[in-house]
Amino acid sequence: MTRLNLELNGPERAINFAQGMPDFETDPRLIEAAAKAMRDGHNQYATTWGAAPLRRGVAHKQSLAWGREVDPDREVTASCGATEAMIATMLAAVDPGDEVIVFEPFYENYGPDCILSGAVPRYVSLHPPEWSIDPDELRRAFNAKTRAIVINTPHNPTGKVYTRAELELIASLCLEHDAIAITDEIYEHIVYEGEHISMATLPDMAGRTITISGASKTFSVTGWRVGWIIAPPVLSNGIRKVHDFLTVGSPHPLQVAVAAALEFPASFYVELRGDYLERRDAMVSGLNECGFAAAAPGGAYYVMAGIAGFGFDDDLAMADHLIRNLAVATVPGSSFYHDPALGRGHLRFSFPKKLDTIERGLEALRGLKQGSARRP
Ligand code: PLP
Question: Where does a domain end: 261, 282, 311?
Answer without folding.
Answer: 261
